[in-house]
Amino acid sequence: MDSIWTVYFDGSSFGKGRRGGPGPSAGAAVLVSAQGVAYTNSLYLPRSDSDTAEYCGLICGLKAALDAGAQSIVIRGDSRNVIDQISGRKVIRKKELLSLGTDAHLLLDRFRNWSIEWIPRARNNLADAAARACIDQARSPSNNSMF
Question: pTM for the whole thing?
Answer without folding.
Answer: 0.91
